[in-house]
């Protein structure tokens, strides 16, 4: 039996959604409010995603949050993942 190639890490859509919200809002508090979750829950989701990917996605500073180079590269594919998830759900509704 032929082994399939390693599919890579499993992505949690809630974590990806949290990442995109922070990237859009450039602020953890506003992103948390947008998603209807606490800032602590949002921070944990982003931290878990960073751990899964093995990279830092954001630079955190007093003036807000900005994507790292890795975060900037991940943003468009992350949006596509969320769009695909919505399309999959819509297909069965």
What do you see in this structure?
By secondary structure, the chain is mostly helical. The chain has one domain (about 15-90): Orthogonal Bundle (Arc Repressor Mutant, subunit A), CATH 1.10.10. The chain is about 65% helix and about 10% strand. The protein has four helices and two strands; from the N terminus they run αααββα. The chain has helices at about 15-25, 30-35, 40-55, 70-90, and strands spanning about 60, 65. The chain has a two-stranded antiparallel ribbon. The chain starts with 12 loop residues before the first helix and ends with a helix. The mean pLDDT is about 95.
How are the SSEs ordered, and which strands pair?
Elements: H1 13-25, H2 28-35, H3 39-53, E1 58-61, E2 64-67, H4 69-91
Antiparallel strand pairs: 1-2
Helix pairs in contact: 1-2, 1-3, 1-4, 2-3
What are the key terms here?
mainly alpha, Arc Repressor Mutant, subunit A, globular
Low-confidence stretches: none
Number of domains: 1
Please give the largest β-sheet: 2 strands, antiparallel
- Give the neighbour order of strands across the main sheet: 1-2
Q: Identify the CATH architecture.
A: Orthogonal Bundle
CATH topology: Arc Repressor Mutant, subunit A
Q: What's the CATH class label? A: Mainly Alpha
Q: What distance separates the N and C termini?
A: 36 Å
What is the fourth-level CATH superfamily? Winged helix-like DNA-binding domain superfamily/Winged helix DNA-binding domain
How many β-strand stretches? 2
* % residues in beta strands: 5-15%
How do the SSEs run, as a string of H and E? HHHEEH
User: What is the helix tally?
Assistant: 4
| Mean pLDDT across every amino acid position | 94
Helix content: 55-70%
The radius of gyration is 15 Å
Gross morphology = globular
